[in-house]
Amino acid sequence: MHSLSDYQSLFDLYLRQPNVVKDQNALAIGGTATVWTPGTGKKIRFMGGAISVSAAVSILFEDNAGGSAYVFRTPKLLVDTPYIFQFPGDGKLLAAVNNVLKATSSAGANLTGVLFGTEESRRAGRAMTQSNV
Known about the structure:
- By secondary structure, the protein is mostly beta strands.
- It has one domain: Jelly Rolls, CATH 2.60.120.
- Helices cover 5% and strands 41% of the residues.
- Strands 1, 3, 6, 7 and 9 form a five-stranded antiparallel sheet that branches.
- The longest helix has 7 residues, at 8-14.
């Protein structure tokens, strides 16, 4: 007889839901700022957010050190106007364990709102095989 835990990888694969919400309260993002630090040994899966900014800017979300580690760029946002976004499927998994999610804006601005996703300690969605079914 199988238990619910036997099928956990199927739930992870098909029913993934955000379980971490990171509040941003007027965080200055004119320079690069850390918006999400995972727990030790965890990987961030960035799934979306509901944000606003204090100036008309675009926000670049980056994986850890920035540069070529681009994750997502918003369009130019209006001042104090909610912008809600969600990535299709499983969201965007950062490249490595313990990488932080950073944000920077195209000009001086403060970020307010929430970012959401998951923090994972293993690779989710392992293939079901005869040995683990």
